[in-house]
């Protein structure tokens, strides 16, 4: 292609982005206050600048032009013309190459380089790729799962396969490695039904992390909301990401993406100009107010803790996010999203409301209203903690569940009543009749915190490798080391740690709500006490697939527990008589018991020394299920007088045993000795 072949005309203002036509490509970009927009075209192989063209026409807030002769594979970026007056919120700078917010593919990852960013930033900035239209994903190929079937497994695309011995080296750490048959065999045998990936949209590690010689491994610093990150691709991120999703679907596993719309990688006042800042800084971000109540464009609102906050109340940002979500569902095929710091998305623009424009737009959208929506229901801004306040069809990550279950099994007293509430769906937070019993996303561990192995091995965080003098990460972990900080060869300590892992995991799976498993917990993965491994792209974060007998035993236990939940209607979905959320019910009776067999009364729940109880679930006749769960978080064995049932109680699980195969075949009629710090499940 020669320069003489490139003829530019006015084109169309929509759709936004680069859209191929019969004889070229239409370019359209939102830049309402710019004096002009320049389109820079680059050679597909070398990134050599081919031509700079001024977009000739502006329609409202959109600059656009059609360039004849441009075909698939062409690389491009933008430069905006206008005033650079930061105090007025204007950051137009022709020396900064900008990434198209609507680009669906970038030719390479973006990494911060202070030297390359100075003056003309073109060498640092990846180029958008003109792409053939992406066909709609076949929606009929998606797993048709109900909320009661969903068991979420959280993982990082790279960390999942980076050290897997059966994954070819060329595929390790990639989209195609994550869906390799060896990985899928593990996930299906474990029994999970949904995989939730940490962010895979194009991101840039923060300058301060890069300057320390580290990186943003987790990816919570998005630059572009559409493009799958090229770090995890061999050649074509779009095609390979889509293939990954399709492969998971072929194995009956949903794909949920962690998405970051609360802030971008452009940071605050001193942050770089990469995309949105250069097109419409004033309209894309939130700012503090001055003493007169007017916007102070010198101070970015920082509800995210990452330097800036996206303004979801503006039409363009709302449209951008909605279009991006539809792209991931309709073109890539994902089943849902977990929204990072989702309270920021409900600020309209400053105060949170469940009637915010973003929530209303999602609810009426024919595509996105059917997607799985999971909120991290807080941000760090004023009034940012909003657990239980999202629209009724959302799911919410429940930190109250996490903290209560951790503390209860650690042995903290006075928590029995709250533990029981968490066990049956946290209905004090997600109220009957208004919210589904699956609304609570229950977790013991998450990517940001201790792994399950570390939760029972460390009392304190050990984040020295992050280079912040061990000051980063959460200090309130509700963890315990049971006699020695970190790794040990003490057999008694090791056995107690394994028992506590079994207690925690079984509680998670048998609780009402949506179970969320941190990927690798079933493999006894350790981060060596690091509870904030966001910058550790190494074996601290990657899965270790080498299993000794102790780790294999725990994996077998996890498989057994998930199997029990999936085979039971009551354990996965209680429909109660007094819950009008649906017009069905499957529970004939729920009974709470003291160890002596008497029904629990109010005083029992408030006895701070009461750390042992039983709960019986009897299904309606058509369900033919009767379960008894015994709990003992105390440091001594407890004798339980069991409720009456026809034929006795059949022992299905007892966490005193390292693996289910070690359990005796036992049918109990009247009494049962429950070991200290253990849980057991009977079926009647």
From TrEMBL:
A Pfam family the protein falls into: CBM_48
Any one Gene Ontology BP term: glycogen catabolic process
Enzymatic class: hydrolase
Known EC number: 3.2.1.-
Key word Zinc-finger present: no
Annotated keywords: Glycosidase, Hydrolase
InterPro entries per UniProt: GH (IPR017853), GH13_cat_dom (IPR006047), GlgX_Isoamylase_N_E_set (IPR044505), Glyco_hydro_13_N (IPR004193), Glyco_hydro_b (IPR013780), Glycogen_debranch_GlgX (IPR011837), Ig-like_fold (IPR013783), Ig_E-set (IPR014756)
Transmembrane domains' residue ranges: none
Keyword field contains Cytoplasm: no
Sequence ranges assigned to domain Glycosyl hydrolase family 13 catalytic in this UniProt record: 173-565
UniProt GO MF annotations: amylo-alpha-1,6-glucosidase activity
Protein family per UniProt: Belongs to the glycosyl hydrolase 13 family.
PANTHER family, A to Z: GLYCOGEN DEBRANCHING ENZYME (PTHR43002)
Protein name: Glycogen debranching enzyme
Organism: Saliniradius amylolyticus
């Amino acid at each position: 292609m020669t320069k003489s072949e490139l003829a530019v005309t006015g084109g169309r203002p929509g759709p936004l982005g680069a859209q191929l036509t019969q004889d070229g490509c239409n370019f359209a970009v939102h830049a309402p206050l710019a004096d002009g927009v320049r389109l820079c075209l680059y050679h597909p192989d070398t990134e050599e600048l081919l031509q700079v063209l001024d977009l000739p026409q502006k329609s409202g807030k959109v600059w656009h032009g059609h360039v004849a002769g441009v075909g698939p594979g062409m690389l491009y970026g933008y430069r905006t013309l206008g005033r650079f007056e930061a105090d007025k919120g204007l950051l137009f700078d022709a020396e900064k190459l900008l990434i198209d917010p609507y680009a669906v593919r970038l030719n390479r990852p973006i990494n911060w380089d202070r030297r390359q960013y100075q003056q003309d930033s073109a060498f640092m900035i990846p180029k958008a790729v003109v792409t053939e239209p992406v066909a709609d994903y076949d929606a009929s190929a998606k797993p048709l799962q109900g909320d009661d079937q969903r068991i979420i497994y959280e993982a990082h695309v790279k960390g999942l396969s980076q050290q897997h011995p059966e994954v070819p080296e060329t595929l390790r750490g990639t989209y195609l490695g994550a869906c390799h048959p060896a990985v899928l065999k593990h996930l299906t045998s474990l029994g999970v039904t949904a995989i939730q990936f940490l962010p895979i949209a194009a991101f840039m590690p923060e300058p301060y992390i890069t300057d320390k010689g580290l990186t943003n491994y987790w990816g919570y610093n998005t630059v572009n909301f559409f493009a799958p990150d090229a770090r995890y691709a061999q050649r074509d991120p779009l095609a390979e990401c889509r293939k990954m999703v399709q492969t998971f679907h072929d194995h009956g596993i949903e794909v949920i993406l962690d998405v970051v719309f609360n802030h971008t990688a452009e940071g605050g006042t001193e942050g770089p100009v990469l995309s949105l800042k250069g097109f419409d800084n004033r309209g894309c971000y939130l700012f503090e107010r001055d003493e007169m109540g007017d916007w102070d464009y010198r101070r970015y609102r920082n509800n995210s803790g990452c330097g800036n906050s996206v303004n979801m109340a503006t039409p363009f940002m709302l449209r951008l996010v909605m279009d991006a979500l539809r792209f991931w569902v309709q073109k890539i095929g994902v089943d849902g999203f977990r929204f990072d710091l989702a309270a920021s998305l409900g600020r309209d623009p400053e105060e949170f409301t469940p009637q915010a424009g973003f929530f209303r737009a999602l609810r009426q959208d024919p595509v996105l209203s059917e997607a799985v929506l999971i909120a991290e229901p807080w941000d760090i801004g004023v009034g940012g903690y909003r657990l239980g306040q999202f629209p009724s069809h959302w799911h919410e990550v429940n930190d109250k569940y996490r903290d209560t279950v951790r503390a209860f099994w650690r042995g903290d007293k006075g928590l029995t009543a709250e533990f029981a509430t968490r066990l049956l769906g946290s209905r004090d937070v997600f109220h009957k009749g208004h919210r589904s019993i699956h609304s609570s996303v229950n977790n013991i561990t998450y990517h940001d915190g201790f792994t399950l192995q570390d939760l029972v091995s460390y009392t304190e965080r050990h984040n020295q490798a992050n280079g912040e003098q061990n000051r980063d990460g959460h200090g309130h972990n509700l963890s315990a080391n049971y006699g020695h900080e970190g790794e040990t060869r003490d057999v008694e300590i090791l056995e107690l740690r394994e028992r506590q892992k079994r207690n925690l995991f079984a509680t998670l799976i048998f609780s009402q709500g949506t179970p969320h498993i941190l990927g690798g917990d079933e493999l006894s993965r350790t981060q060596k006490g690091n509870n904030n491994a966001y910058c550790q792209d190494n074996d601290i974060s990657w899965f270790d697939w080498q299993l000794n007998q102790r780790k294999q035993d725990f994996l077998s236990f996890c498989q057994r527990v998930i199997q029990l939940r999936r085979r039971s209607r009551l354990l996965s979905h209680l429909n109660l008589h007094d819950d009008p959320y649906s017009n069905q019910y499957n529970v004939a009776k729920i009974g709470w018991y003291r160890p002596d067999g008497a029904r629990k009364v109010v005083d029992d729940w408030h006895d701070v020394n009461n750390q042992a109880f039983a709960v019986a679930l009897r299904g309606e006749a058509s369900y033919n299920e009767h379960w008894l769960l015994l709990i003992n978080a105390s440091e001594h064995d407890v004798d339980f007088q069991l409720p009456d049932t026809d034929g006795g109680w059949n022992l299905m699980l007892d966490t005193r045993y390292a693996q289910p195969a070690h359990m005796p075949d036992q049918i109990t009629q009247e009494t049962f000795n429950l070991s200290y710090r253990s849980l057991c499940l009977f079926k009647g």
